[in-house]
Specification:
Elements: H1 2-25, E1 46-49, E2 77-79, E3 83-86, E4 93-101, H2 112-118, E5 122-123, E6 130-135, E7 142-145, E8 149-151, E9 166-174, H3 181-188
Antiparallel strand pairs: 1-3, 2-8, 3-7, 4-6, 4-9, 5-6
């Protein structure tokens, strides 16, 4: 009987071993998939410069600069062509320029403001000297001239304006998320 019990026990162990082997080889129906997201950050990037000129406002053909010095002479025309450059890869943006014209009282009929408006810039409501325009997203550099020159009146008292100047400052902010240039200007806290 002992031999029979041993045979039954061994047979039972063999059956359990076979059952365990079969259970581990059973394939389940299953599937998996994934989505990978890569995030980049947009940008808005500008520079501002103007043609290099001599003291009489004549271009020298040199590399564009951030500053020029002028000798004021009544009735004389000077090249001053500040240009905003929107850098390649920039998002759709609002561009702003603040023009502080210390010579406006002695300009002749060719006014700087008229040139700014003719170049596609618009006055920003309730902000003196600030103009804006929308710029589309760009894959290449894009240039936005502000104005091209200024001329002093023939009877200008230039001695009273010896320390006056024309200062142009450019700003940019993404257009996405803003319903107007005024909202963008306010949010930019320029």
């Amino acid at each position: 009987m002992r031999a029979k019990t041993k045979v039954v026990a061994l047979s039972l162990c063999a059956v359990m071993l076979v059952a365990a082997s079969v259970a581990t080889t059973i394939a389940f129906l299953k599937s998996s998939d994934s989505v990978k997201n890569t995030f980049t950050v947009g940008k808005v990037s500008i520079t501002l410069d103007e043609a290099k000129v001599n003291e009489y406002g004549q271009t020298t053909g040199e590399v564009r600069v951030k500053e020029n010095t002028y000798k004021l002479i009544p009735g004389h025309e000077y090249t001053k062509d500040p240009t905003v450059h929107l850098t390649a890869g920039s998002e759709k943006s609002y561009l702003f320029v603040k023009v502080e014209n210390g010579l406006s009282a002695i300009e002749d009929d060719t006014k700087i403001e008229a040139q700014i408006l003719a170049n596609g810039w618009e006055k920003l409501n309730n902000v003196a000297g600030v103009y804006y325009r929308e710029a589309e997203a760009t894959a290449t550099n894009a240039d936005y001239p502000v104005f091209g020159n200024f001329t002093l009146a023939g009877n200008a008292d230039v001695a009273s304006y010896a320390s006056a100047g024309i200062k142009v400052t450019a700003y940019a902010i993404q257009a996405d998320g803003f319903t107007s240039a005024t909202a963008a200007w306010t949010a930019g806290n320029f």
